[in-house]
Amino acid sequence: MAMSVGGDGDEDEVISAINTTPLVDVMLVLLIIFLITIPVVTHTVPLQLPKETVMPLQTTPKSIEIAVNRDGDFFWNEQHVDAPTLLTRLKTVSVQLPQPEVHVRGDQSTRYEFIGRVITACERAGIAKVSFITEPPARGG
């Protein structure tokens, strides 16, 4: 068992450091090649494409708002109507294509009977979509 103390040139030593210079040279060459070839590949024929506007295929009808106050009076889009007039107006609207939606707004203290009359009139007229408009509660409580 001998121990080498001096630096004789005959012995083969393992170099533990990696020489990255050739790796950097190859990467720079590849980068230059890609920078030169990418504009050639993405080159297209200059064209002026036609302009197109989007037109809706089906227009939505205006919704009908029926309000009922605490006394049981009916209002068709803020115009006072009685029960027979309400039914005839709903019948004339129900034949429209597409059929408009009916939004029912009822006072908080209105009896359910009056709201039921509006729903019954909508059923008799053949209205398909009836919805109720409510006020969301306050955020704090």
Automatic annotation (TrEMBL):
The keyword Manganese does not apply. Belongs to the ExbD/TolR family. The keyword Cell membrane applies. Keywords: Cell membrane, Membrane, Protein transport, Transmembrane, Transmembrane helix, Transport. Its main location: membrane. This is Biopolymer transporter ExbD. Pfam families: ExbD. It comes from the Bacteria. It is found in: Cell membrane. GO terms for cellular component: plasma membrane. One of its GO terms (molecular function) is transmembrane transporter activity. It is a single-pass membrane protein; Single-pass type II membrane protein. One of its GO terms (biological process) is protein transport. The chain crosses the membrane at residues 26-45.
